[in-house]
Amino acid sequence: MTVRIGLIGAGGMGRAHLARIQDDLSGGEIVAVADINPDAARSAAEPYGAKAYDSSDELINDPDVDAVLIATFGKVHAPDVIKAIEAGKYVLCEKPLATTAEDCIAIMDAEQRAGKRLVTVGFMRRFDAAYNEMKEVLDSGEHGQVLMVHNRHRNPSVPENYTSRMAIDDTAIHEFDTMRWLLGEEIVKVRVDRPKPTTHRFGHLIDPIVVVAYTESGVRIDDEVNVNLQWAYSIECELVLETAAVRLGDQERIHIRDSHGNRNAMCQSHIDRFQAAFNREVQEWINAVAEDRHTGSTAWDGYAATCVVDAAVKSHEDGGSPLVDVELIDKPGFYA
Ligand code: ISE
């Protein structure tokens, strides 16, 4: 069976998913594209003979669409996710699931009413080979308990419309989800530190920041979010266990030896760095939809990450205050 997918959002991320589904993956086909900009929908859809819609409602209710992939801005995710659930269709929603805890709760309520897990949040790092190896080492128990995790989330540059809040809800949110998944527990406290700012940032932006968080069992997590590095897209993570330290590899691609020395080529974007993880994530989702089962992160995971964002933003807006509690509702049995 070919899973017939409707794509909502024909921007950069949507087009990257479109190309991977049509050209690289198997078992799925994009049959419709919706975007509030009709030209964007048409220019994305036409080369693949897909339908173009300027409203997401029409796409969701199209009987030729089996499942929905959402790649619009976080702020507008919730209504489309809920409509897809109500239409009984599986949804892969790019992160964040929604930008407020209330919207995430509304999504979880809709899913529970539907009686079936239909929502997967696009936290692609769960499909990254190196993070998975790191998780295997941790879960083996060979090196004792985890005490700390050091993360560095570095981007070469960001556009002028990237805000200080986005350093948390668009960038650090990846570590919030990855740490919850890796450690298998919730983050309960968080604060934001503000080191000396880089001169390479736009004046309105606070950059870099360091997010410090603690989990239920007391694991300390830090995350350097530094998005005007100029030289690379670099994701680093070191897990400190009682008798070992486990680090992601250097994500190197090629080695160059010349008069400047011996060096690796570095990735320059998340599309580049996480290409294999994105492919694995979307392929696994297509396979799961074809078999009528859920895969990947749940709406609860999307909700929990958004709650960590809210607490971190509170600390950030207070000028980098002491630790802020992450407030979560009781986890519904549906997501156990
Ligand atoms: C972007 O939205 C991502 O998801 C990238 O992984 C992240 O590195 C970047 O900072 C975000 O803006």
From TrEMBL:
Where would one find coiled-coil regions in this protein? none
Q: Quote the InterPro entries the UniProt record gives.
A: Gfo-Idh-MocA_inositol_DH, Gfo/Idh/MocA-like_OxRdtase_C, Gfo/Idh/MocA-like_OxRdtase_N, MI/DCI_dehydrogenase, NAD(P)-bd_dom_sf
If you read the UniProt record, what top EC class would you report for this enzyme, in one word?
A: oxidoreductase
Arranged from A to Z, the UniProt key words for this protein are:
NAD, Oxidoreductase
Residues annotated as domain Gfo/Idh/MocA-like oxidoreductase C-terminal:
135-320
An example of a Pfam family matching this protein is GFO_IDH_MocA
| EC number(s) per entry | 1.1.1.18
Q: Which GO terms describe its biological process?
A: inositol catabolic process
The source's domain of life comes to Bacteria
Any idea which GO molecular function terms this record carries?
inositol 2-dehydrogenase (NAD+) activity; nucleotide binding
HAMAP family for this protein: IolG
| Protein family (similarity comment) | Belongs to the Gfo/Idh/MocA family.
Q: How does it assemble?
A: Homotetramer.
Q: PANTHER family attached here?
A: INOSITOL 2-DEHYDROGENASE (PTHR43593:SF1), PTHR43593
Q: Briefly state the protein's biological role.
A: Involved in the oxidation of myo-inositol (MI) to 2-keto-myo-inositol (2KMI or 2-inosose).
The protein's name? Inositol 2-dehydrogenase
Q: Which organism is it from?
A: Actinomyces gaoshouyii
